[in-house]
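hiii, so i know i said id send this last week but things got crazy w the move. better late than never?? heres the sequnce for the chain we talked about at the cafe, plus the structure i predicted for it. fair warning i was half asleep when i ran it
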Amino acid sequence: MAVELADQAPETIEIKPLAMTIGAEVSGVDLSKPLPGQQVGELRAAFLRWKVLFFRDQPLDHAQQVAFSRQFGECTPAHAVYGHQDDAFPEVYSIDRDRRNKRYKGEDLLHPWSGWHADVTPAINPPAISILRGDKMPPYGGDTQFSDMVAAYNALSPNMQTIVDGMRGIHRYQGNAGVNVSKEYVETLNKNLIISEHPLVRVHPETGEKALYVSPSFLESIVGFTPTESEAMLAMLKTHAARPDFNVRFKWDDHALAMWDNRQVLHLGPKDIVGSEFDREIHRTTLMGDIPVGPDGKQSTPIEGNPIKPVGA
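okay and structure toks below
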């Protein structure tokens, strides 16, 4: 059943919207401790309304981040392809500032949508929520951007909405750098192949809203289209999804945390600080999601790989 996205003022937290449809900064909450039930409810309501929540001055460790995450759902393993780095915390994926340079070699063809993605959409049940904690962040640069796919869908013409409502696409976990990938990266991908067919429009399981389900880094083709037709349509949809008027941009500082709805939000990690002298220590948890459903009521279908399971399952 869809929930109403009310703008009723919360009683235990403060909400500061940052853009017209996406992104709000939350204060008046201590994420290092178990939250009262009312506060969890207010955060969840704000999360569904604004799609991305930002918190500052939250010096958490891995255990506290996992405990906070579990108040909103079951944790997935750190990463469906790359696994985890710390056996004590298999839920935590620590993100290397220079990981792209280690995976990709040389320069790549860049598009307006390059780098934009929702997490692990090639899985049949992609994570519902992603939570990113910044321990030590650059003094400037290194911003993360987020794009609202509900707003992107609503901005399409009625005719285009009718067209995409019935379309499906193939999501594959692979590098988006063409031939310029390291041998080690290719071997890792081949050992952990994940491919799924998803609707191009996803109905949110909690709000009932329609979101353009286009994850540019992973969506490779449209089912039933010729390669030429697919490439042209995807170029339009991916460019549309990255439009600045759907975006919010977050300036990190030490001990900030971002929590976003992976079912209706794309994000873009920073490239400006790669190779810089600045440290960037950042850690992610993700929460279990369901199988996407399109406007026609049809679920996604798996092609390769296993569903994501909760940690410990």
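btw Helices lie at 37-50, 62-70, 99-103, 149-154, 158-165, 183-191, 227-241. thought thatd interest u
miss u guys!!
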